[in-house]
Every structure is written in structure tokens, then in C-alpha cells.
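User: Okay, second chain of the day. Same drill as before: sequence in, C-alpha cells out.
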Amino acid sequence: MTAGRTAVRWWVLLWLLACCGSGIAGVQRLAAGVYVVQGSVGGVEASNRGAIGNSGFIATPAGTVVVNTGGSYRLGRELLALAQQTTGQPVVAAVITQARPEFLMGAAAFTDRGIEVIAHADTARLIAQRCHVCLRRLQQTLGDDEMAGTRLVEPGRRILGSESIAPGGRRIALLHLGAAQTQGDLVVIDEDSGIAFAGALVTRGRIPELDTVGHAAPWRRALASLATQRVRLLVPGYGAPGPPSPLIEATDRYLGQLEREVQAKLDAGEGLQAAQDEVVMRDWRGWAQHGAFQRRNVQLQYLAAEAAWAAGGAK
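Assistant: Same drill. C-alpha cells below.
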């Protein structure tokens, strides 16, 4: 590449980062060919343009694989441009780690360019079942201009379990550890570098949100399986990357305490309302989205524990 072309390339990248406001942030190199783009750990609001959670780039000899596509068509286009400017290669595939709007609403920007979008089959099912509601909420919060062009698209490739892809010979594992936060959670592991993108399965500085699975035990089992993988650096779905053990343990510690405190309320004969009022888990009050997620987490965990108790009593 000539010096003139290099200068133009970096001028375009700087312009892109400047024009993105407080939405898509800068890219951080984690290893040769592996990058993370960190989003907000908070909720969707106009100031962050819906750029919630983390995305990633893995450069392969055949092109770049993007992990998670952003929260709108506009953010998806910005990720595509940033990926190509960062790696110098076209994007050849995108992986959605789970059916979270911040990870999938940008997928149309990829499919419009003929780029394959990969997800677990259960993620595709959840997108079809519920994501139209999320889209309406995003349009109400961010407005028609920010959400222009955003639409739901079906992943072109749906996997049923754990698989690997190897564009240009670089092996990338798509690891399904069972239903955990959602039924279709995937962990993306670049085997060359030992870097894993865990999506919403692991959080940092943000309350884990019980979702469609609805209770902590399967999630904790998935985390235990993740801890056995050969991973050098872990990119959580929210917050900064770091060594895997402390990140996995922090998420598991929250879920474990949620389980214990809710079970104690049920065993004491306290109702759901009392549990929601009293299981506040003060050690996590400083984490983002505590006010938004905590009461619903207690509700889902209580209902799951109550159902397990009732099923046990019926035997």
C-alpha cells in the first residue's frame, strides 16, 4: 500500500470515529488480527445511540469475521466500515452470540452486502418470536432517524450445536454450552490467539440479566463449562476484556447469590413481592442496570424456584 493510500485510510478512520458521536467507540487491538469495539454498559438512550455491549473483529486470510452486528442498521454500517478500515480486509461473515437487540439489530447492514450472518438456530427462533417488540421500543427511544433502515433479518446460517469455521484456515470455534442466558447462546473463540467473545454470557460492571431461560442454574453450568476452555483473554458482552477466571467468577458470584437469596425467601414462605423488595443484593448496586434488571431477575428466579418446588411436591 502506498503512503498516500495509507494516509487516506487513516483519515477515513478518524473521520468515522469522530462522526459516530458517543455511539461506536474506538477499536482496541487484543492480539494479532483480533480487536474489540466496546459499547456502553448502560441502557439504550439517545446519548449512546443504542451502542450497547461489545462487538469484535477477527481478521483471517479470507477476510474479517465480525462478532455481533450492533444495535441498528446505522451502527451495523459503522461497524462494517470500522472493521474494514482496521483490518484492511472485507468482512466475510458475522456471528450473533445471542438474541439481544444490541447484538443483532445491525444484521441487515451485513446481509444487504451479501455477508453471511451466523447464529444458533434457537437464536433465529427467538429473533422471529420477540425481536419485533424490541425494534419498536428502540424506534420509540432513539427515533426514526437513528433507526432508519433497521429491520429484522433471519440469520443465513443456523447452527444446532457447537461448530467451527475456518475462513482462510484460521479456526474460530462457535461454542454452544447449552441454554444459559438464552437458549441459543454462543461463545466465539479465536483458536490462534486464545481470545473468546462470550457475549451476554459474561458481564463486567453490568448486572447479568436473566432472559428467556429464566433462572440461574443453567447459566452457572454454562459458566463452569466456559471456565474449562483454553482461553487466554475473555471479552465479556459488556465491559472491558480481561483474564477469563475473574470475569467468569464475578458473573457466577452474582447468579449464585441471586439463587440463594431467592430460595431463602421461598423457603421462609415469603411471596414474590416481598422477595423483589428484599433481595436487592447491595454488593452489586454499583453495577450498571441494577435498577433496571434486579427486580425482574428476582421475579424470574422466584418463579423458577417455585415451579421446581411444586414439581417436587407433586412427585
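The two ends are 71 Å apart (CA to CA).

User: Thanks, on to the next one.
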